[in-house]
Every structure is written in C-alpha cells, then in structure tokens.
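Quick start: what a row looks like.
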Amino acid sequence: MTLTVRQFPCLSDNYGFLIRDEATGLVAAVDTPDAEAVLADLEASGWGRLDLILNTHWHADHTGGNERLQAETGCEIAGPEEVRRAAPLDHVLVDGEAVRLGETTFDVVLSPGHTLGHVVYHAAEDGLAFVGDVIFALGCGRLFEGTPQQMWDSLNRIAAWPEATTLYCAHEYTASNARFALSLPDADEALKAHAEAIFAARERGEASVPTTVGIERRFNPFLRARDAADFAERRALKDGFKG
C-alpha cells in the first residue's frame, strides 16, 4: 500500500481527509469542509505541501475551503462539474476516468442520489475509497437531487467491491444511524451487538469512520433493503426519524 490517510474532524460532524502518495510525496485533500482545519492538519502532518483537492460533490461543507486552500498552497482542484456551483474547480472529472496522485490511481465513479453529479474515488489497488455522502457507516446520504433508484444503484455499485475495501465516509452520523437500524423489523442480534460497540466507542470519543464494504453489507439498513422500492421506504422513514 502506497497511500497514507489522515482523518480529522471538521465543522460539527464532518471529517476531512489528507492523503499522501508515499512513492512520490504528493499530497491531496479529499473535500475541504473547513480550510483552517485542513491547514492545521497539514501542518501537523509535516508533509509540507498540498498538491491537489479532490471534491466529491458541490455542497459547501465539502467545497468551502477550496478557494483559500488554493490561494495558500497553489494546489489544483478536481471534481465533478457541479462543484462550480459553489467553488473554484480546475479539472472536471467524469465517470470512468482515472485520476492519479503520484503512483496512486483513483477510479472516478459517478454515484448520483445525494446530488446528481456526486462522485466517489476508488483506489482499488490500495483497497480503499472516499465515498463522500453516498454511503455512511450504517447509513446513506439524503436524496437532495436524485431519485431512490439512482441512490440504490449507487449504493450497490459500492457494495459490489471486495468486502475488505475501506470506506472513508464524510460524516460522523453512525450512532444516529445505528438507532434507526435498530428500529427496523429486520434488526437482529448481530446488529444489536454491532450497535452497542458503536455506542461504546462514541462514548469514548472514538471515530466510527472508516468502515468497510463487508460491515456495510451485513449491517447497513439501506443495503439490507430488498429492492429500490424498499430502499425508498427506508429512506423516507430515516428522513423523519428522531432517534
């Protein structure tokens, strides 16, 4: 594995990610929730540079630091066309394209649902992906722009990756997601034990991110749906859930 990942909290419940290709020393930020937090972690890393920003989608809690970070580091910014609705963007990335950070290659996978242009970055050789707001630990993103069918298809594209694939999702929503999963009729003893472990970890102040494809296949209530219609019902229930 040639990629080092640094994860740090931003804003109220976002995570920021800095990644370094160890073969070349090139550094990227995946999304920019808060420029100050990104710069602070960049200084703490000792990496001394920021070469690239990879945006997953256009929302401000993922693009808000683009302008300042580019001004202060001279980095390039790449992402889907929709990023231009909110922030600077130098290179438009499309589905099926490969983007490189030194010797690390990310496949760009269009994953509509949360927004229509949302992409995820899958480094298959490194066994990891940055999935933005498509899939969360025990959850998935709200459907602000896309349809249930689009999100269902996006989730299942991710679920088809090897079980050991590490998923870096962009928010710490897991405890709430777990409470929702436990409210559903198909909650089983294994899910209850998994949820209790999450609650205990959060009480200790530990992050619940990243997760893996295997864990989400087993426990994520949206991947446990029978089909797109069942998924849509679950997503509607979650939108109104107060747990």
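That is the whole record. Helices lie at 35-45, 60-63, 66-73, 148-159, 174-183, 189-203, 213-219, 228-239. The longest strand covers residues 3-10.
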